[in-house]
Write a structure and sequence with these properties.
The protein is 44% helix and 17% strand. It is α/β, with parallel strands linked by helices and 323 residues long.
Length: 323
């Protein structure tokens, strides 16, 4: 039979205090003298006592767990998001449950059910599928990261997609580019990033230029993206500039332009600016999102909601052009 570890009663006996005192120490609730704190700490270390997190959650009404749902950690953007959300969670006293949904709506639904069933204190959602759940009826604090949820009453953290798009297009325009194509994911209304497509159209109209979209909906598959981009660009005739709404599309586009033999004639600007992509492709012109700051703000807004505060429903952080 497996030997049981030390209990809270063992700690209390070793420290010569009551079980209630040990409980107050573990949950940081109520007054305990410095001497008793020292005694309890010494007893815990001596006995190698590991507190029962489930029991503690009953006492404090908190699990100190938060969830993060992303469509794929194979994408450098979401991998970087996950890294910084976990760092921020640890700093704020939470452990992170990372849910990698593989961009599958059923997996995302099951992860939502699992997180809610385990009574996590809050959830950051960066999924790309619609209608996962009736978010407005969920009591658990939620933050959408570059994602509108429910009736847009749930807090959303976003980068400045409008400003970033205009920076990208101003760069191309100032390079003398006039035949600019926008390569993007499928149209939607669930994401702040859809402003990238909207303001591309506005920019082109304001500058009396003819715009054209190439939509790539491949569930983050780079090889599929290249095939679609190559096929569509081959039909476009002349063009001299491309605004890609994320860096993976920009890289796929650069590879296609090289295959078509026009890489020296066409300028490309991407969007995201993750550490991985900018280190591998240092010459890529892109709009850099403040991913670390967005992740930390998402956790901060969760924490404030958990503590009963009212937080802004839409927070926008500035971007920069890397060229």
């Amino acid at each position: 039979m497996k030997k049981k570890g030390p209990t809270i009663r063992d700690v209390a006996k070793e420290a010569n205090v009551s079980v209630a005192t040990v409980s107050r120490y573990l949950n940081n609730k109520g007054y305990i003298s410095e001497e008793l704190k020292h005694n309890v700490s010494e007893a815990i270390e001596k006995l190698n006592y590991i507190p029962n997190q489930v029991a503690r959650s009953f006492y404090s009404n908190k699990t100190n767990l938060i969830g993060l749902i992303v469509p794929t950690i194979c994408n450098p953007y979401f991998a970087e998001v996950a890294y910084h959300v976990e760092k921020a969670a640890e700093k704020n006293g939470y452990k992170l449950l990372l849910c990698n949904s593989l961009n599958d709506v059923e997996i995302e639904k099951n992860y939502m059910k699992m997180l809610l069933a385990n009574q996590v204190d809050g959830i950051v959602i960066g999924t790309h599928n619609d209608d996962l759940i009736d978010f407005d009826s969920v009591d658990t604090p939620i933050v959408g990261l570059e994602r509108f949820l429910g009736n847009r009453t749930i807090p959303t953290v976003s980068c400045d997609n409008i400003g970033g798009t205009l920076k990208a297009l101003d760069y191309l325009y100032n390079q003398g580019k006039r035949k600019i194509i926008c390569i993007s994911g499928a149209p939607s209304s669930k994401f702040p990033a859809d402003d990238r497509k909207t303001y591309y159209s506005i920019f082109m109209q304001e500058h009396d230029l003819q715009g054209k979209f190439i939509y790539v909906n491949t569930s983050f598959d780079v090889n599929d993206s290249k095939g679609i981009i190559k096929e569509e660009l081959s039909k476009c005739g002349s063009f001299d500039g491309i605004f890609a709404t994320d860096d993976l599309l920009a890289i796929s586009t650069l590879q296609v332009l090289d295959e078509l033999g026009v890489s020296n004639e066409v300028s490309v600007v991407g969007f995201d600016g993750t550490e991985l992509i900018t280190s591998i492709y240092p010459n890529l012109v892109t709009i850099k999102q403040p991913i670390k700051e967005m992740a930390h703000l998402s956790v901060e807004l969760l924490d404030r909601q958990i503590e009963g505060e009212t937080v802004p429903t839409f927070s926008v952080l500035p971007v920069s052009l890397i060229c």
